[in-house]
TrEMBL record:
InterPro entries: GH28_Enzymes (IPR051801), Glyco_hydro_28 (IPR000743), PbH1 (IPR006626), Pectin_lyas_fold (IPR012334), Pectin_lyase_fold/virulence (IPR011050)
Pfam families reported in the protein's UniProt record: Glyco_hydro_28
Name of the featured protein: Polygalacturonase
PANTHER family, per database record: PECTIN LYASE-LIKE SUPERFAMILY PROTEIN, PECTIN LYASE-RELATED
GO biological process, one term: carbohydrate metabolic process
Entry's family note: Belongs to the glycosyl hydrolase 28 family.
Signal peptide positions (record): 1-34
Superkingdom of this protein's organism: Eukaryota
GO molecular function, one term: polygalacturonase activity
Keyword terms, alphabetized: Glycosidase, Hydrolase, Signal
Annotated SUPFAM superfamilies: Pectin lyase-like
SMART domains: PbH1
Length: 487
């Protein structure tokens, strides 16, 4: 399944871009295969499954043990929930692991449990049910106060959990297929009563690992940890049509101590979107996203950003470190989205090492992003945007270097750019930079930036900060887990 995926690219894409894309995909696939191994024992019809995780489990079972049928037609929601419920008894006895073997496992939403691993073997596909009644409706998030697609509640995510600890969702690059076409049609035709479901959402939880999986065709956002901490998301491939609505890749939301690394995303919206609540609801909830590391992200999103901060950032975003970012045919590199009424802050952002090809904007900040939760937003709630650092950036075939728009009376400050080389497209905009209501400095930036970002001279090409000390999430040790499984 899904061995090949046709990625829509514009006709003017150079052959070098295609070659780069193919190389990136091959590297990611080879890397994913190298993160786990399967050792066959032909004499005993079993194999040793070996992989790394934040926790290993003392107990293991297959979804087949609970009556699951992987024929792509039989609905397995009850089997999955019964499996999780029964395996939860081992939470205090070394934890448990539920194996999903090769096959197509049709299911509606089910809840996970603590000290638990959901493992998708090679060629295992979780197929999200397209029966709307399989999706319970839950309350909007308290930091949002409102659904993203419609007022009121939201459909529960396919894999869901709240108030959990030590949760792992991983595999041998197994697939979770959201079958999102039905949902996208309902969204476009304005027939949704509630907000679309996500593929994975964990709330109020701690010690989370999501790794070595392929997620395709999510109804909306793909991975949404919210109000949670100590999260590792790595080796994930996310694929959605580039015109699919709001199929964000990974959205850490009011989370602390998060590590995203070695992820490959093709989507119809931001590849990574950092959030912390919406307008007055996010201000009141007051839970920022902080201590976030993003490494070795590869992104294709022609209508959105590789990394977006906001627009729902009313609880604050602080200490974001992104490095080794590759984006091809993506609207912008790192985008900050906010508006009057958001409140909150985005500060202490550090970006180092971006390689970009075929972009509309390399740098984009806007204080005019609309889309309020309701009419009760506070016009005096002004966001604080400061301490935004970019260094070591190379971009090719760019329509416009930067669009930087602060808020009148509330400028974005402390912007730093150094060692940036941008090659403009043949049909680039006449003026590569537009700047208003911002303050900052630059060094070694081409083409020369706007006057609001004065050049400090080539000798200061490394002046923009990037912290050298590690965050706590980098100190979490992964274990080698080994299991003997029948097949």
């Amino acid at each position: 399944m899904h061995s090949f995926y046709r990625i829509p690219l514009p006709s003017h894409m150079e052959k070098t871009s295609w070659l780069l894309l193919v190389i990136l995909v091959l590297v990611l696939l080879v890397g994913a295969e190298g993160r786990k191994s399967r050792i066959l024992d032909e004499s005993s019809s079993s194999y040793d499954l070996v992989y790394t995780a934040i926790s290993c489990r003392a107990h293991s079972a297959s979804i087949k043990d609970f009556g699951g049928v992987g024929d792509g037609k039989t609905l397995n929601t009850k089997a999955f929930q019964e499996a999780v419920n029964q395996l939860s008894q081992y939470a205090s006895d070394g934890g448990s692991q539920l194996i999903v073997p090769a096959g197509q496992w049709l299911t509606g939403s089910f809840n996970l449990t603590s000290h638990f691993t959901l493992f998708l073997q090679k060629d295992a596909v979780l197929l999200a049910s397209q029966e709307i009644n399989e999706w319970a409706v839950i309350d909007p998030l308290p930091s949002y106060g409102h659904g993203r697609d419609a007022a009121g509640g939201r459909y529960i995510s396919l894999l869901f959990g709240t108030n959990l600890t030590d949760v792992i969702i991983t595999g041998e690059n197994g697939t979770i297929d959201g079958q999102g076409e039905l949902w996208w049609q309902k969204f476009h035709s304005k027939k949704l009563k509630y907000t679309r479901p996500y593929l994975i959402e964990l709330m109020h939880s701690d010690n989370i690992q999501i790794s070595n999986l392929t997620l395709v065709n999510s109804p909306s956002w793909n991975i949404h940890p919210v109000y949670s901490s100590n999260i590792i998301i790595q080796g994930i491939t996310i694929l959605a049509p580039v015109k699919s609505p709001n199929t964000d890749g990974i959205n850490p939301d009011s989370c602390t101590n998060v590590r995203l690394e070695d992820n490959y995303i093709v989507s119809g919206d931001d590849c990574v979107a950092v959030k912390s609540g919406w307008d007055e609801y996010g201000i009141k909830y007051g839970m920022p996203t902080s201590q976030l590391v993003i490494r070795r992200l590869t992104c294709i999103s022609p209508y959105s950003a590789a990394i977006a901060l906001g627009s729902e950032m009313s609880g604050g975003i602080q200490d974001v470190r992104a490095e080794d970012i590759t984006a091809i045919n993506t609207e912008s590199g790192v985008r900050i989205k906010t508006a009057v009424g958001r409140g909150g802050f985005v500060k202490d952002v550090y970006v180092k090492g971006m390689t970009l090809h075929t972009m509309k904007w390399v740098f984009w900040m806007t204080g005019n992003y609309g889309s309020h939760a309701d009419t009760h937003w506070d016009p005096n709630a002004l966001p604080e945007i400061k301490g935004i650092n970019y260094r070591d950036v190379v971009a090719e075939n760019v329509s416009m270097a930067a669009r930087l728009e602060g808020i009148s009376g509330d400028p974005f400050t402390g912007i730093c750019m150094s060692n940036v080389t941008i090659s403009m497209a043949k049909k680039a905009k006449k003026y590569p930079w537009t700047c208003s209501d911002i303050e900052g400095i630059t060094s070694g930036v081409q083409p020369p930036p706007c006057q609001l970002l004065p050049d400090q001279g080539p000798e200061k090409s490394e002046m923009c900060d990037f912290p050298t000390e590690s965050l706590p999430i980098d100190n979490i040790e992964m274990q080698r887990c080994s299991y003997r499984l029948n097949y």
